[in-house]
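Supplementary Note 3. Input sequence used for the single-chain structure prediction.
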Amino acid sequence: MHIEPQNTRLESSRDFAKHYLMIVLSILTALGLEAWIEHAHHAHAAAASSARIEAEIRINLSQTEASLKKDSAQLQRLTAIRDAVSTDIKTHVPDETIRQHILALTHNSFDLNLNFPQLRHEAWDVAVADQSASWIDHDRMQRYSIAYASQRDTLSMLNENTSLIMNGSAMVNTIADLDTGDVQPRDFLHTISQMRAMLDQTTQNLRLFVGTLKAALSPESTDPTEQAGHA
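The predicted structure, written as discrete structure tokens, is reproduced below.
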């Protein structure tokens, strides 16, 4: 800000007060204008980041719902096979008969076929890196934070469940036995029970994650620029 010096001589204290008041008002006006421009910049950056984050969350939601649908169908299929084999064993059906039953139930394909979404986080990372996240409305920002934290937790739980529930070598061996037609009923029951438990836990986690993502999104009637940004 540049202020021109007074060229005329100040004749009285009244002239001095006027000149002083003019300088003060000029400074306050400049500061107010600067604050307004900065606020407008922050509000625009916050609105843009919020729009990108919500678009990213909607993509993750769509992919998660698609994975949940596929995993739920696979869970239902494996549950039906597991229950049929379990009933055979409980009723003391001969092993050879159970073996033929297993081969008939799995003749199309037999695999875990777990589907997990490829979750994106680039928009969130950029908002944090360029600090525009700090200008987003607090309540909105909290919903976003919960969604991305849940995203990390869901992926972490998948990895933990895989190591805790699944015996990968046993599953590979069972698939090989099915290919040769020499599958052992109890070994098969153990393996498919693990696979079913893995899918069951995954679908539960994905179902909870879907709810979290939906809660993070703004209502359709809300303009994302109305709540975004603060100085």
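The longest helix spans residues 13-90. The helical segments are 13-90, 95-105, 122-129, 138-165, 168-180, 185-216, 224-227.
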